[in-house]
Amino acid sequence: MLFGIFSMADQKKSILKLSEKGNSERKIAKLLDVPKLTVHRVIARFNETGSFKRKPGSGRPRTARTKANKAKIKGRIQRNPSSRKNSTRKLGKALGIGPTSVRRILKEDLGMKSRRMAKGQLLNDDARNKRLERFLFILLFYT
């Protein structure tokens, strides 16, 4: 089959062109090496709608990444950005959606990063100066 060589849009265009020239569905299927049912559906959809594109609203509806859920997550984080209740698991549980969906909303829709702030050592001036002296010593010693 030639499915990998041409895009589906190109195949549909060629099916329609061959159909307009008067070729039968069986002959088109044989020429393009595609199933006859595919040829039939493309021609039927074109005759019905005037286009071979998908109907709007066809496909699986969104259940987790809805506007309402995006607004709820954004609101919770704005109210208390450093809360432990803002973990992806807890947000998902509160909204009734999965933690992966929460991560996807945070990253792709809200442009945020879903990560926990790492606890790090705070350096005072004395420790910072001592660290700098050691760095310079090592730098001079090994170069």
TrEMBL record:
Protein known as: Paired domain-containing protein
UniProt subcellular location: Nucleus
GO cellular component: nucleus
Matches recorded under InterPro entries: Homeodomain-like_sf, WH-like_DNA-bd_sf
SUPFAM superfamilies noted in UniProt: Homeodomain-like
Renumbered residue ranges of the record's region Disordered: 50-94
Phylogenetic lineage: Eukaryota, Metazoa, Ecdysozoa, Nematoda, Chromadorea
Bias (Basic residues) ranges: 52-77
